[in-house]
Amino acid sequence: MAQQTGKLTLQDVAARAGVSSTAVSLALRDRPGVSEGTRDRILAAAEEIGYRAVRRGPNRTAPGTVAVLLRDIVSVFSHDVVSGMEEAAGDAGLRLMFFDGRGDLEHLRSEFEELRAEKLRGIVTFGTAIPAEMLQKAAQRTPVVLVGKAERAVPGVDVVSNDDVLGARLAVEHLVGLGHERIAHLAKGSLRAEGYTQGMRDAGLERHLQIEGGSVETLKPAIRYLLFSILQEENSPTAVFAETDGVAIDFLGAAVDAGLRVPEDISVVGYDSTRQTEMIRPRLTSVRQPRHQMGVSAIRLLQERADGRNEDRDLILEPGLDVRESSVAPRTASSVVAPSSLSARYRRLQLH
User: What is the pLDDT of residues 52-71, one digit of tens each?
Assistant: First the structure.
């Protein structure tokens, strides 16, 4: 058996076991989130390469440990950010310890509260699940970095996020450049909605349809409403910009079920440029967040705090746009579907 060296990391165990580094962290700490079979495979891989991990217990963390709180370990966004954190942490000689929120906000907050008493190099948390007052109290003892835009500035807490306003503007500018003037937006009421509004205004266009919902579930009826509009109204949208790739894919599927052709009848643009955008057909045009770099930046912000920086930083990274097959120039008048055909598609949609 190989002997452990200082260079061995969670990534080495993950590569040996064929799993993610997040799963390795959960298995080595005997935490929920991985199956027994996967846990056994990870433990065997760690033993094979000589990796010895300190299991959780009283005073389980060390000054070189960074705690990472994830709302959901299967999230593509979290996975890609964590890959950047692993890279930066390895270079800095830091150890990452992951905590799975299981999609349960109360559980995640309980985990965060426990960490306040630990000796840590820092804490990284995702999104706005942790209340501002809890973040501020933790930051008085341990450096805290929030990945994702905060609802308001929290004293002592650094933030790294994507420029969502710019990202939405890139999506609108792309569609306008193709010749679209009637662009709908499926939104959850965020900075991306603000960027859509700015992009339309800058192009001299009116917001055509901006349908908002508080969650993915509440956006499902909005998708049906938008499809009714496309199928029934004379000056209906020729393109749709969705808040996330998930919403865009839901719309694309519903559109196809209703008999619409994508992108011939309607162009679709998503946001996040996750791996799913390459897996569906047509492949989805989407705004690309710099997720890996966000993870690298989160660790670097913690290091800066350790080096003595006292002022808070709000680091906003620029997104890009990955153009794929789901967005093309709007159809010409000669290619518009006949009203009788639209009526049949409308009836089909009512049945779903």
Answer: 654 444 344 455 889 898 87
